Amino acid sequence: QVDAVRVYVNSSSENLQYPVLFVVRQQKGVLSWQVPLIFRGLYQRTYNYQEVSRTLCPSEPTPEAGPSDQIIFVDVASMAPFNIAYELLVTRLDNFQLETNKAFNFTASPSQPQYFLYKFPQDVDSVIIKVVSDVVYPCSVVSVQDIVCPVYDLDHNVEFNGVYQSMTKQAAITVQRKDFPGEQFFVVFVIKPEDYACGGSVPSSIHGNVNRTWNLQRMKNLQVTIVPSIKKSIYVQAMFFSFLSFLSFYLGSVVVAFVHYISTDMKLTVPFGCVSIVGSGIMTSSHPITASTPEGSSYGAIDESSSSGGRQLSSPERGLPAGSDTDSSVEEESDFDTMPEIESDKNVIRTKVFLYLSDLSRKDRRIVSKKYKIYFWNIITIAVFYALPVIQLVITYQTVVNVTGNQDICYYNFLCAHPLGVLSAFNNILSNVGHMLLGFLFLLIVLRRDILHRRAMEMKDVYTLDYGIPKHFGLFYAMGIALMMEGVLSACYHVCPNYSNFQFDTSFMYMIAGLCMLKLYQTRHPDINASAYSAYASFAVVICLAVLGVVFGKNDVWFWVIFSMIHVLASLALSTQIYYMGRFKIDGPDSDLGIFRRAAMVLYTDCIQQCSRPMYMDRMVLLIVGNLVNWSFAIFGLVYRPRDFASYILGIFICNLLLYLAFYIIMKLRSSEKLLPIPLFCIVATAVVWAAALYFFFQTLSSWEETPAESREKNRPCILLGFFDDHDVWHFLSAAALFFSFLVLLTLDDDLDAVRRDKIPVF
């Protein structure tokens, strides 16, 4: 048992020119202070205390010498030309050493800090120091320091040594035995003279003697409990759980693929009598099917007779030789459409009242496929250039935390932050493994479909060319890479989560939502979807707005006015392009007045005259609802100005994606199309898993919108295996939800593989 001595002094003097100086000399150190004791705050404010109580650095008896008496000298001095009364009291502390799993209550104030000793038990390698208080203020600091004298236990020096964090009602620090060679440490409790560091009010700037405050009552009752942390075996169990949980998805995918392969041999043929569905929506034919070439439409046509009542088939894709999906420097994406001049002119086709997929899938398949491959290669380039500086930055953040000991830099859930190596919260990083594993699995599934499609193309299968949704896999590959990168960047963010790097956790979520919307649109509009360059440029603009929102979005009204205007105008412009299938142009005379006259004419004819019955009713309904949703977001942002601007933009993306997906499924069912068992299962799984994931997402465990001390009030213990918290469960479930969402997009139209494209409606 270690003995400790506490010295209490009191002086009635308020003369700051002649303070009373106290110097305590011990065997291994000297401790000194003055009375009145002065603390300095903002705007040159001073807080003076006439009562001071300090704990002297204890001297532990050595095993060789055994217990012995310790001599302490207390020197009292003052330069005052008159007598000053003071009081001195020296007492022995009976409860200086803290015990494991035993709560201890005490009181502290700015001029009367406290610290206690803790020794690691033999079988404990890591402990969590839990400190709680019934009141929010006064603001306090909890520090863990090595057994070194002097102990830094005042507001102006508590940050000089060890690990520390600010506190209002709750604090938690994980301490490992390996960090303290002596297997013991001091737990120091300091009360700050002002509360602004913990989110309290900031003192106003007042000049004159009013800046001096005497004996401000800032006592705080605290309770400290030191409990053992988890053992190494829990780390192993958590890692096995994380990997095996998601590897089970691989096993499930293999089983589904095997069952699909076995059932292929017994699958009944479709009405054509010669076509069967081969795994994952790919068509093959058992013997050639002929079609007649329409006169005047020789582009890309094949001289074969049709088995469907002599119906004419014409597709530029059918004229391609097998294996022609090779890269070529001359096959670059172009706005020039090699289509027949009159009947097939895109301005005529795309403005028909009733459009079918054959009208929007007339371009050369090689060029279109190459166009969508650019999505894949570009996102890899973006990922490399984005991720490398992010990794470097978060490593620097973690190094700063480890070197300075300032745990207010990173917003962890300190009640469930399990360190490993240099990482302070390994569990928050490990839980992101699901995004990477499921993203890679999705790439494998897409690759399988791609290979089956290529094999069908090599067999010169006419049904692969003229039936079902055109198979372009570039966007799917990009979605898989985006899912993997979301896991990487989310893990990077959770190395040291804070206000400055939150965009790392959301950047690829924007891209995932955007790519999903593009893929959904591309399904029935393969010829007019956005290019990779314009899409990624748009994502770059969104990320720039997110950065500006983080910097200026807190209190600047002008930013929200500009952003809301951009949001509304962008919604209108995009709606116009979607409504007119990319063929809306305001052309007319060369004069500026002619342009405005043309704009007024378009507005009158298309918006006013056709208000009761638009030409494209389904598209109009979708766009009206979509614009109402986006305008509501713009008004909400302008009125409430949410501080979490990154999540605000992400909410806009997700709501638009869900709206479009719901519209697509409703229109699909309305068109007498059906949902096969696999996409139906994926839709149900997506809804269920997203609902569960969002429940855990809204269990806020920390918030960088507040001060570190206020954020710690939201900290909660682990809920899964004693290792993962609510946010880790969100990571697990959101990874699975995104994976199922991708499968919905991948399999949603498998029922159309036996349907002619000129029978598939566009919506």
Write the layout of secondary structure elements.
Blueprint: E1 4-11, E2 20-25, E3 30-35, E4 37-40, E5 46-49, E6 51-55, E7 73-77, E8 86-93, E9 104-108, E10 114-119, E11 126-132, E12 140-145, E13 163-167, E14 170-176, E15 184-191, E16 212-214, E17 220-228, H1 232-264, E18 275-278, E19 282-285, H2 346-349, H3 365-404, H4 426-430, H5 433-458, H6 462-466, H7 474-495, H8 503-524, H9 532-552, H10 557-579, H11 592-608, H12 617-640, H13 645-670, H14 677-697, H15 708-712, H16 726-747
Parallel strand pairs: 5-16
Antiparallel strand pairs: 1-6, 1-8, 2-3, 2-7, 4-5, 9-17, 10-15, 11-14, 11-17, 12-13, 12-15, 18-19
Helix pairs in contact: 1-5, 3-7, 5-7, 5-16, 7-8, 7-16, 8-9, 8-13, 10-12, 12-13, 14-16
Family: Belongs to the SID1 family.
Biased composition (Low complexity): 305-315
Region (Disordered): 291-337
Structure overview:
This protein is α+β, with helices and mostly antiparallel strands and 763 residues long. Among the domains are: 4-61 and 72-200 and 214-229, Sandwich (Jelly Rolls), CATH 2.60.120; 365-546 and 673-762, no CATH class. It contains 16 helices and 19 strands. The chain has helices at residues 232-264, 346-349, 365-404, 426-430, 433-458, 462-466, 474-495, 503-524, 532-552, 557-579, 592-608, 617-640, 645-670, 677-697, 708-712, 726-747; strands spanning 4-11, 20-25, 30-35, 37-40, 46-49, 51-55, 73-77, 86-93, 104-108, 114-119, 126-132, 140-145, 163-167, 170-176, 184-191, 212-214, 220-228, 275-278, 282-285. The strands form six sheets. It has a four-stranded antiparallel sheet with strand order 9-17-11-14, with no helix packed on it. Strand 18 and strand 19 (282-285) form a beta hairpin. 36% of the residues are buried.
